[in-house]
């Protein structure tokens, strides 16, 4: 996932509405990854808040250990 400004917070929400703050792994400048291998197969919403206060939400679909964005 590419983020221009640094990520201040990341929240993962599942279909039941359960929301949890998660920690992203920085891969390179502006690139982050999130490990979902221990989580069940479902659709998630990942909401990122950047250091300058902007928010972006992306939908993640976990199927087995293959992810579709």
Strand order, biggest sheet? 2-1-5-6-7
**Structural class by helix and strand composition:** mainly beta
Question: What percentage of residues falls in helices of 4 or more residues?
Answer: under 10%
Strand content: over 45%
Count of extended strands: 7
* Cα shape: globular
Q: What does it look like?
A:
The chain has 69 residues and is mostly beta strands. It has strands spanning 7-14, 19-21, 25-28, 31-33, 43-50, 55-63, 66-68. The strands form 2 sheets. The protein has a 5-stranded antiparallel β-sheet, with no helix packed on it. It has a two-stranded antiparallel ribbon with strand order 3-4.
Features:
globular; 69 residues; mainly beta; two-stranded antiparallel sheet
Q: Could you give the topology of this structure?
A:
Layout: E1 7-14, E2 19-21, E3 25-28, E4 31-33, E5 43-50, E6 55-63, E7 66-68
Give a short synopsis of this structure.
The chain has 69 residues and is mostly beta strands.
